């Protein structure tokens, strides 16, 4: 049996229909329950639903053999995992946004950047030699510039609506993110056939 | 940081004893190397990137020291200098703690790990490769881990040959290596379309990189350069021997194991056990290493992680 960790929220919403198309289904009773660990109808897969940022943790320790999680989370955690498949779900961009889009070219000695993604942000600005102070927040990042906490934010954008409604616009796109199938290195060898079966099943429905 | 108390300490000692007695059964002599040595040694032995994971500090005269991040460097230097005149081959084994910061993987969080390792120096070829694979598998079987362990084997020259044929500059070569290592199928396909001219196709299907002998056959159909084909042939030879010894069930070929290309020069191996989320051992041929200490000769070795083995065995004992 393979254990698969799924990030709750947007990733889960994208992953369950994809899994269903690949013939991996959970009963409605199970899905409507509040249990955090479910088994699929064939008994081949056990699913655990955890916070997206915890998916790489479960998979890296081998508690889960596989996981479904956004590339944004993988970049932020720098987990040592295998990434055999881009599932194309929960697509979004990782962007730098600000009230004034010329904020970066105005000669500021140092920019303050509010974000949930401190590693992505510091790598991005560090690579360009732009001095920044990273302010780590855990949510409602779009508020920070309006309230004077930061000059810029680094955040995920799906439609851009939240940005617009908070008076922000995109300064630059750091990268694209989408849901990934990730696999533990040991499981990839020790449960090679089962993992290959899952990868191939999801690859087929992903191309639809 | 971890304590072993009572039964756990006894189990750990037993695992160490089993490994050391298997090593000694194959005529590997125990060696004890210094815990603290000049940092230069490890940079020469492991390459700068790996050596920097060591804990470094200065001596009174300002020279940089390190708490040993590996044992192989010290053994290689010893073979090239102190034992330069001793008849070959040399066989050495050890059980020794190594110290590293910034672990590659968050799951390997320990700063201190005890390595059970061996080095076979001064002899190359199939016989030596096979010997260390047999030693590794005998240790795991003696620990009653039959059917729970898997040793993956690869030859890094397969990748090197393909990369050379593609004529990749260093950053692109590193990118290709990383995409294969993490099995990023989609990105790999795009990369090979951009650079490949059809050359890298052997690496295109990540799920087909691991398996038994059929993996070699599939790769042969897609690889055209001599260097890779020679490496595939030597892997094939080893597989034939493993089959003849009845060991093929415990081994897998993994052409995607390209994690330490700048270190290994031929056969590379990794050890996995059910119940451990990361590999519990690794090794390979490093013919380039002793040369950096002044006496170039073939060498091969592997290490098993005593702490990881103890943890797996402790857990299966409590489950009984």
Give the key terms:
heterodimer; A: 208 residues; alpha/beta; D-Maltodextrin-Binding Protein, domain 2; 6-stranded mixed β-sheet; 5-stranded mixed β-sheet; elongated; B: 320 residues; alpha+beta; BirA Bifunctional Protein, domain 2; 2 domains; 9-stranded mixed β-sheet; globular
Helix share bin of chain B: 40-55%
Low-confidence stretches of chain B: none
Q: Tell me the span between the first and last alpha carbons of chain B.
A: 27 Å
Helical content of chain A (DSSP H or I, runs of 4+)? 25-40%
Number of domains of chain B: 2
Strand-pairing-aware structural class of chain A:
alpha/beta
The strand order across the widest sheet of chain A is: 2-3-1-4-11-5
Brief summary:
The complex is a heterodimer of chains A (208) and B (320). Chain A is α/β, with parallel strands linked by helices and 208 residues long. Chain A has 2 domains: 2-90 and 178-206, 3-Layer(aba) Sandwich (D-Maltodextrin-Binding Protein, domain 2), CATH 3.40.190.10; 92-176, Periplasmic binding protein-like II (D-Maltodextrin-Binding Protein, domain 2), CATH 3.40.190.
């Amino acid at each position: 049996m393979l254990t698969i960790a799924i990030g709750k929220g947007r990733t889960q919403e994208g992953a369950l229909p994809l899994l269903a198309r690949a013939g991996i289904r959970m009963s409605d009773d199970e899905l409507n329950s509040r249990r955090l660990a479910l088994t699929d109808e064939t008994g081949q897969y056990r699913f655990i639903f955890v916070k997206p940022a915890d998916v790489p943790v479960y998979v890296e320790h081998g508690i889960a053999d596989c996981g479904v999680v956004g590339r944004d989370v993988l970049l932020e955690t720098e987990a040592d995992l295998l990434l055999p498949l881009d599932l194309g779900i929960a697509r979004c961009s990782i962007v730098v946004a600000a009230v004034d889009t010329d904020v970066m070219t105005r000669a500021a000695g140092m920019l303050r950047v509010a974000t949930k993604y401190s590693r992505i942000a510091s790598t991005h600005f560090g690579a360009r030699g732009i001095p920044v102070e990273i302010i780590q927040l855990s949510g409602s990042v779009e508020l920070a510039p309006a309230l004077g906490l930061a000059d810029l934010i680094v955040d995920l954008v799906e439609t851009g609506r939240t940005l617009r409604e908070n008076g922000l616009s995109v300064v630059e796109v750091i990268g694209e993110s989408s849901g990934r199938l990730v696999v533990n290195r040991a499981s990839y060898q020790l449960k090679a056939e089962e993992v290959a079966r899952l990868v191939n099943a999801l690859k087929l429905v992903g191309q639809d | 940081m971890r304590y072993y108390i009572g039964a756990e300490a006894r189990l750990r000692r037993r695992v160490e004893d089993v490994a050391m007695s298997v090593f000694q059964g194959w005529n590997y002599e125990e060696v004890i190397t210094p815990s603290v040595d000049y940092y230069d040694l490890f940079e020469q032995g492991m390459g700068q990137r790996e050596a920097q994971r060591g804990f470094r500090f200065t001596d009174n005269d300002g020279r940089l020291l390190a708490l040993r991040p590996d044992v192989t460097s010290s053994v290689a230097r010893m073979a090239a200098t102190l034992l330069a005149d001793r008849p070959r081959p040399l066989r050495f084994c050890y059980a020794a703690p190594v110290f590293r910061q910034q672990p590659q993987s968050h799951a390997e969080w320990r700063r201190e790990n005890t390595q059970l390792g061996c080095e076979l120096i001064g002899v190359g070829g199939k016989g030596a490769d096979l010997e260390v694979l047999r030693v590794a598998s005998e240790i795991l079987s003696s620990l009653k881990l039959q059917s729970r362990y898997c040793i993956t084997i690869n030859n890094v020259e397969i990748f090197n040959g393909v990369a050379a044929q593609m004529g990749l500059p260093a950053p692109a070569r590193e990118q290709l290596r990383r995409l294969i290592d993490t099995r990023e199928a989609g990105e790999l396909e795009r990369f090979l379309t951009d650079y490949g001219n059809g050359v890298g196709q052997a690496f295109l299907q990540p799920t087909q990189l691991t398996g038994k002998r059929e993996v070699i056959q599939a790769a042969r159909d897609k690889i055209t350069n001599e260097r890779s084909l020679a490496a595939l042939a030597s892997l094939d030879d080893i597989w034939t021997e493993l089959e003849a010894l009845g060991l093929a069930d415990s081994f897998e070929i993994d052409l995607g194991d390209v994690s330490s290309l700048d270190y290994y020069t031929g056969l590379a191996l990794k050890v996995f056990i059910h119940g451990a989320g990361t590999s519990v051992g690794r090794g390979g041929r490093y013919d380039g290493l002793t040369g950096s200490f002044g006496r170039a000769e073939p060498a091969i070795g592997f290490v098993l992680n005593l702490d990881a083995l103890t943890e797996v065995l402790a857990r299966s004992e409590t489950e009984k």
